[in-house]
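PROTEIN DESIGN WORKSHEET
SECTION A - STRUCTURE
LENGTH: 470
TOKENS:
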């Protein structure tokens, strides 16, 4: 098994004033990247201290915690909900103490050789672990090197040569702050200048709220150190031959107002809609998004096709996320609670709905039925990415990805199952064009089953299953 799967959000900040409130605000800007738990660590002049807990950022870190977290440099984390690995002990930042001080790390991604490395250190060196989190492993490996050389850059570099897979990290070692991105750049990480200092964040939208200047993305393989005066870059000695930015960041995961690796998320989604309208035209009365993630895709479709855009679903923002609920009945009930049709938009109309992705097909099955019950004459479906057929080992929750409808069914069969009048997915080529980066610089593993890195054991098993099904 690969390591635990979770996509998350990370922040780092170094200022001339206290940073905890700033980190708190930045974490709230990337709250969509994780709602299970959150935490902040700062260096208070003597040592690293941490406040963390379950829930949204403002539940996990209370005003009293913020007051206590006095210090000029720190890191923060929001953790994605996943059905497994819910334990509180996995909450980040994770701290490790050595004789020279404390290392705290916040991690977004997933280490693909986690089990092998953990076994090596458990069996071979008698280490103990408190969590099932690959972030603890990373922090302990960094600590191991720091004990030997007390040089954080060298220690991080050695660690990078041991771990494989996806990692965007913010690291606090006493009063020193670092940002690290894996050599493929699977997960985003950017650098910004704010009024009285510098910050690191998973998404550029977190820099925007400080009216800060977005400086640039951390280059894949790069280590950045932020100090009181500015930042220093330590490029990696052994860059991988190509990059592998996760396409799902643009399609679903990131905020539309963020710019990732030079491409604004909103614009990419508009482009996808544009391309969908060309690849899969339809004779309908109106185009409707499945909110929120399908909005910009639907708008792009509407503008390119000239077909009117309407809001036809009202979203209840206070319902738990349907996607991670453990059983199908609960997921279906939750979709009904979450989205309700606007009858006047729908009645008697031929409708085209646009969603970002189909995983199990639960959402669309329910929505199409709702639209028909509300009087829709026809319901056509367009999807902002190609059929998802392969699990993600780089940080998007896998538990939820083991039941892909597209693994066992053709597009026509899926259309029938969800009860649509027509169904069209964005092609892989269309998706690549919409993002606007070379195909070789993207991770498209979940839609083309080509993994940018070596994946141990389970991929072979999975590929055998793929062959059986096609
Ligand atoms: P399905 O209902 O087909 O299983 O999932 C598709 C829906 O879930 C889409 O509306 C999409 O926006 C959303 N979705 C896709 N991937 C993820 C994910 O990794 N996490 C969550 N929470 N939602 C997702
Ligand atoms: Mg959605």
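SECTION B - SEQUENCE
RESIDUE ASSIGNMENT:
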């Amino acid at each position: 098994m690969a390591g635990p799967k979770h996509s998350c959000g990370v922040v780092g900040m170094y200022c001339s004033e206290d940073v905890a409130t700033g980190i708190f605000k930045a974490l709230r800007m990337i709250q969509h990247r994780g709602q299970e738990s959150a935490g902040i660590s700062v260096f208070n002049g003597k040592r690293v201290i941490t406040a963390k807990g379950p829930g949204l950022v403002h539940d996990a870190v209370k005003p009293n915690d913020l007051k206590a977290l006095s210090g000029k440099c720190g890191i923060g984390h929001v953790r994605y909900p996943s059905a497994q690995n819910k334990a509180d002990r996995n909450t980040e930042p994770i701290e490790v103490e050595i004789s020279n001080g404390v290392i705290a790390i916040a991690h977004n991604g997933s280490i693909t050789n986690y089990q092998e490395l953990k076994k090596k250190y458990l069996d071979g060196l008698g280490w103990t672990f408190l969590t099932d989190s690959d972030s603890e492993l990373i922090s302990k490996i960094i600590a191991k090197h720091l004990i030997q050389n007390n040089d954080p850059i060298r220690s991080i570099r050695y660690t990078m040569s041991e771990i494989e897979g996806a990692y965007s990290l913010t690291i606090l070692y006493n009063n020193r702050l670092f940002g690290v991105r894996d050599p493929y750049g699977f997960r985003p990480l950017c650098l910004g200048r704010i009024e009285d200092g510098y910050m690191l964040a998973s998404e550029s939208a977190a820099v925007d709220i400080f009216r800060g200047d977005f400086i640039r993305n951390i280059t894949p393989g790069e280590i950045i150190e932020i100090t009181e005066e500015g930042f220093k870059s330590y490029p990696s000695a052994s860059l991988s031959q190509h990059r592998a930015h996760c396409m799902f960041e643009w399609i679903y995961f990131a905020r539309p107002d963020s710019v990732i690796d030079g491409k604004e998320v909103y614009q990419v989604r508009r482009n996808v809609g544009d391309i969908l309208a060309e690849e899969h035209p339809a004779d309908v009365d109106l185009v409707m998004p499945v909110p929120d993630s399908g909005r910009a895709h639907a708008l792009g479709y509407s503008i390119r096709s000239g077909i009117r855009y309407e809001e036809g679903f009202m979203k209840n923002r206070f319902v738990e996320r349907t996607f991670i609920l453990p059983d199908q009945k609960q997921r279906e009930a939750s979709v009904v609670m979450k989205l309700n049709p606007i009858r006047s938009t729908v009645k008697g109309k031929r409708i085209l709905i646009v969603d970002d992705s189909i995983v199990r097909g639960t959402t669309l099955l329910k929505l199409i039925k709702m639209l028909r019950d509300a009087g829709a004459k026809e319901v056509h479906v367009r999807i902002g990415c190609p059929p998802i057929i392969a699990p993600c080992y780089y940080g998007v929750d896998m538990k939820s990805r083991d039941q892909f409808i597209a693994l066992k069914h053709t597009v026509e069969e899926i259309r029938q199952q969800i009860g649509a009048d027509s169904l069209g997915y964005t092609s892989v080529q269309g998706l690549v064009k919409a993002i606007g980066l070379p195909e070789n610089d993207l991770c498209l593993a979940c839609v083309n089953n080509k993994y940018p890195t070596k994946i141990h054991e389970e991929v072979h098993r999975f590929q055998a299953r793929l062959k059986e099904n096609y």
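SECTION C - NOTES
Confidence is low (pLDDT under 50) at residues 1-5.
Residues 320 and 337 are 9 Å apart (CA to CA).
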